[in-house]
Design goal:
- By secondary structure, the chain is α+β, with helices and mostly antiparallel strands.
- It has five domains: 76 residues, no CATH class; 204 residues, Rossmann fold (3-Layer(aba) Sandwich), CATH 3.40.50.740; 117 residues, Barwin-like endoglucanases; 109 residues, no CATH class; 56 residues, BFD-like [2Fe-2S]-binding domain (Arc Repressor Mutant, subunit A, Orthogonal Bundle), CATH 1.10.10.1100.
- It is built from 18 helices and 22 strands.
- Strand 6 and strand 7 form a beta hairpin.
- Helix 5 packs across helix 7.
- The chain starts with 9 loop residues before the first strand and ends with a helix.
- The structure holds ligand MGD (2 copies) and molybdenum atom.
């Protein structure tokens, strides 16, 4: 290895997700030792990025060693399970694809002469086909594309205009439910029965622990029932999840003989009782037990006919859309710690709303300064595809020239916080993965004439205002609002909207506070003013949960609440605010453990520990400066 005459090899490493720095550090160590030079390419297509990681591991002989197993690069719970049953448009079931041999084999197994002969459309192109009318019927199940796909306004329009749009959903309202004609109520996690697969290839039983609500049914039952009524009952004759599992296991082993990694034939003959008590297992689980497969590819044996791996050389490409003078910023999108995807479930939790209550756009202080933007401003983020209206958060956590917006907020919980309306729909040519991390945008401040907070026991149908977001409270709904309209008009329109669902006489207080109190209990309150009052929600929230307002409570409420400024929560488990952690640090807590001892923050699930560390580092830097 120390042969200095060897030509220097340049490798381009293309980081992928948050784990990229770890992979990178590992690989850099190796490359350094081997005298290789590493060039880091920040932008490439999704498939190229994945391939680059695989190439790195192949090159360094790492695949199959402990800690270096091949995984599917997906983030959803049971994403592996979805692939095993063929829930992608370009795969058949049990890890088979659309080669003529695979199509014929699945046809033999299902005794069907009418097999799909070629891959279907991938998500982005599918909705383009719905929009152009090439597809006239679409059934959306367990996904919320009107919120989660790029160029989301087009997806909404496509569903609205489609002859037959069906959605199977576990919640009553979502952006996709609103756009579809037929709505089928589905059971959700905790209510349904079956198996899930984790990344380590572990298949485990999922058992319901909640009763079935209303007429909701399991997705498989809905599919089978629709098939039956269309006259295909025979092909969907299962009576239980165990039936389906047995068929799935049998197909995985059908004419397999070691050619396909996914083989769980050993579980194809489970009785209903065995299935009910099935213990978690890692595939493969072949009927002949020839190979139990503790580790894939530990001794080579790649899934090509000669057993050898293939390097695929890749050429990085620039993002499809380059920033321009008019749109000089790169919009990056993704997750925040305490929300999941389109918030249909995490959005119901008051505790999880404490961390990041509003749809924000994060930008670097330098980019904020030239646009005269400060924390808390309401700004429009505009691209060639659409615009979102978000709250500004200035931070050096993003680089200059880049801005970040979370993907979570939808039309259900915000006026215009759904960022995918502005995200470009370019896709990776191989995988079809949209370019969700790179859209050229410009940001400008919207001049608000008023800012406000509404707290109400029952949800409020808001009139048209520039910015609003709904934040779940414990037993009530909070709305944070701002508008370009005159204050007096807003006051009138909002009071009327609140009264419509929270009736009662209005009491007028100081600082633009108006409240509806009924039987000594606060039903709703509105607080509007010309200037921003970021702490109003937290100041006024305690009044919403009081059973009986005493005279002094009522006076305090009508005076705009008691002055406390907690800041957002940092620890969702124990509801610890950022402010109390800062106090603890100032009082001498200099480690995670001592913060935990003083405030309980970070002592349960641990999700907030990285943020606690950042606060500690900031305090240390302040001290040093
Ligand atoms: N709390 C929470 N956790 C989740 C989810 C959730 O919704 N909420 N969703 C799950 C799902 S389905 C998934 S797919 C995963 C996604 O998990 P991740 O992919 O880890 O998360 P993201 O926030 O989408 O973005 C990843 C990071 O990539 C960075 N990034 C963007 N472009 C580039 C680039 O070109 N190079 C490099 N090096 N970095 C770049 C972004 O700044 C961001 O920090 O998360 C899973 N976990
Ligand atoms: N801009 C931007 N957009 C992104 C991303 C990004 O980083 N940036 N990330 C992308 C990624 S990686 C992902 S995985 C997607 C996620 O996007 P989606 O999959 O669209 O988001 P979810 O909110 O998980 O949608 C699941 C829906 O199914 C419903 N549901 C839950 N359980 C069940 C069930 O058992 N049956 C049925 N029928 N319905 C159920 C939920 O209520 C919810 O409405 O978003 C993608 N979109
Ligand atoms: Mo994902």
């Amino acid at each position: 290895m120390a042969d200095l005459k060897r030509p220097k090899l340049t490798l381009r490493i293309i980081p992928l997700v948050d784990c990229a720095p770890v992979v990178l550090a590992k690989e850099l160590g190796v490359f350094g030792r081997h005298g290789l030079e590493v060039e880091i390419c920040r932008e490439a297509s999704w498939a190229t990025k994945v391939n680059a990681i695989i190439n790195c591991h192949l090159l360094t002989g790492r695949i199959g060693r402990p800690g270096m197993g091949p995984f599917s690069i997906t983030g959803q719970p049971n994403a592996m399970g979805g692939r095993e049953v063929g829930a992608l448009s370009n795969t058949l079931a049990a890890h088979m694809d659309f080669t003529p041999e695979d199509v014929a084999r699945v046809g033999r197994f299902w005794k069907s002469s009418r097999m799909a002969q070629r891959p279907g459309l991938k998500a982005v192109e599918l909705f383009e086909a719905v929009k152009s009318g090439r597809i006239k019927a679409v059934w959306v199940m367990a996904t919320n594309p009107v919120a989660s796909l790029p160029d989301a306004a087009s997806v909404r329009a496509a569903l609205r205009d489609c002859d037959l749009s069906i959605v199977s959903e576990a919640v009553r309202a979502s952006d996709t439910v609103d756009a579809c004609r037929i709505r089928l109520p589905a059971l959700a996690w905790g209510e349904k029965d079956g198996t899930v697969t984790n990344s380590e290839r572990g298949i485990s039983r999922q058992r319901p622990f909640l009763p079935v609500p209303g007429e909701a049914r399991q997705d498989w039952w809905i599919v089978a029932e629709v098939a039956r009524r269309l006259g295909f009952g025979q092909a969907f004759e299962w009576t239980s999840v165990a039936d389906i599992f047995r068929e799935h296991a049998a197909l995985s082993a059908f004419e397999n003989g070691g050619t396909r990694g996914f083989d769980i034939g050993a579980r194809a003959d489970l009785s209903d009782r065995d299935y009910a008590s099935l213990a978690p297992f890692i595939w493969p689980a072949r009927a002949d037990r020839a190979w139990t497969g503790a580790r894939f590819f530990a001794d080579g044996g790649f899934l090509h006919s000669d057993g050898r791996a293939r390097f695929i050389a890749t050429v990085p490409r620039e993002p499809a859309h380059a920033p321009s003078a008019a749109q000089p910023l790169r919009l990056n999108t993704g997750r925040v710690r305490d929300q999941w995807h389109t918030m249909t479930r995490t959005g119901k939790s008051a505790r999880l709303a404490g961390h990041r209550p509003e749809p924000t756009v994060e930008l670097h202080p330098a980019d904020a300064a030239v646009r005269r933007l400060v924390n808390g401003d309401i700004a429009e983020v505009a691209s060639d595809w659409g615009r979102a209206v978000l709250k500004v958060h200035v931070t050096d956590a993003v680089r200059a020239g880049e801005v970040f917006a979370p993907m979570h907020w939808t039309a259900q919980i915000s006026r215009a916080g759904a960022i995918n309306v502005a995200v470009n729909p370019a896709v990776d040519p191989i995988s079809g993965q949209p370019e969700l991390k790179h859209t050229p945008v410009e940001i400008r401040r919207l001049d608000m004439r008023w800012h406000g907070t509404i707290l109400a026991i029952r949800p409020v149908m808001l009139p048209e205002v520039t910015y609003w977001t709904r934040v779940r409270g414990a037993g009530y709904h909070a709305y944070l609002l701002a508008g370009e309209q005159p204050l007096a008009l807003a006051q009138q329109a909002l009071s009327a909207a609140v009264s419509a669902t929270n009736p009662g006489p209005w009491l007028n207080g100081e600082l633009g506070v108006r409240a509806v109190i009924s039987d000594g209990r606060l039903e709703a309150m509105v607080m509007l003013g010309e200037s921003r009052d970021e702490a109003a929600r937290q100041r006024l929230a305690p009044f919403m949960t009081m059973d009986q307002l005493r005279v002094e409570d009522r006076n305090a409420l009508l005076n705009g609440g008691n002055a406390v400024d907690r800041g957002d929560d940092i620890c969702a488990c124990f509801g610890v605010s950022c402010a109390s952690v800062k106090v603890a640090i100032a009082d001498g807590a200099i480690t995670l453990d001592s913060i935990g001892a003083a405030t309980r923050a970070g002592t349960n699930c641990g999700s907030c520990r990285p943020e606690l560390r950042t606060l500690l580092r900031a305090a240390r830097t302040m001290k040093a400066a």
